[in-house]
Design goal:
The protein is mainly beta. The protein has one helix and eight strands.
Length: 158
Amino acid sequence: MQQAITHLIIRNPFGTMDVPEPDDPEVMDYAATAALAGDAEDDNAAHWATIAAPDPLEGVWASRWNGGADPTIAGDMPDKWKQGRAEIRIAGSRIYLRFDWDNGRRHGLIDAARDGARLVGKYINLTTPAIMRPWVGRVVDATRIDGCFPNGRLDFRR
């Protein structure tokens, strides 16, 4: 008979695998050079989602990302947007952004620290956990979070 591991402590409020070392040197190095102006010229400025915003950040969002081809999606290319649903939860000083794409078949989690309007953390692909990237976001308002990782964009809208 196998015994369950009972000493695990999960930091994120979704109960999924945690992002390992979300503040590691790779994240901090990327955050030092990533720039998100949050202006009307940004790729995420145009409204592309329609989700009611009952709370300033927590709750349901839409997500989209590009900058990599998902091999599980036929014909996918790095410049194509992969859209999905997202949920944001705040736990202590951390912000957790859990999202999906490919009609809910693939999932990711961002664990980030907030520094004013700036979010700095790391992304883990929950479906393929070997895929992890630094991520930096900018909270533009209660309906828009612009985000980037070294290969492309990972944005959130309501």
